[in-house]
Amino acid sequence: MGDIVFRSTVHAERLRFTQEPWMAVRFSGTGKRESTSHSDRTHLPDPVGTGQDYEDVTVAYRLATRLAREC
After folding, report:
1. In what order do the strands lie in the sheet with 33-42?
2. Cβ partners under 8 Å of residue 33, min gap 6
3. How far apart are CA 45 and CA 54, in angstroms?
4. Which residue, 64, 67, 47, is CA-closest to 4?
5. 1 DSSP 8-state letter
6. What is the four-CA torsion angle of 10, 16, 22, 26, rounded to 10 degrees?
7. Nearest one of 67, 42, 43, 55 to 16, comparing CA atoms
8. More exposed terminus of the chain, fewer Cβ within 10 Å: N or C?
9. Half-sphere exposure of 33 (CA within 13 A, CB side)
10. What does the pLDDT read at residue 17?
């Protein structure tokens, strides 16, 4: 699913959050959309703890969207 698909993979040897992370995805423009997103995490819990070190972290993220069909 998706006319537009975004994929990203990041890796960190060591990662620490000094404050609670916040993430949002927004689409500008008009028209209703059908969207999905998913992340696969290695060595990174959900939610993360602030002030804690995480090692050998990998996050693979996928976002797909398309305009919804009109009925």
Report:
1. 4-16, 53-67, 33-42
2. 27, 65, 66, 67, 68
3. 9
4. 64
5. -
6. -20
7. 55
8. C
9. 16
10. 94
Closest CA to 25 of 43, 15, 11, 38: 38
Give me the count of residues in the chain: 71
Q: What is the pLDDT along the chain (71 residues), one digit of tens a residue?
A: 668 899 999 999 999 999 998 888 877 777 788 889 999 999 999 899 999 999 999 999 999 998 887 66
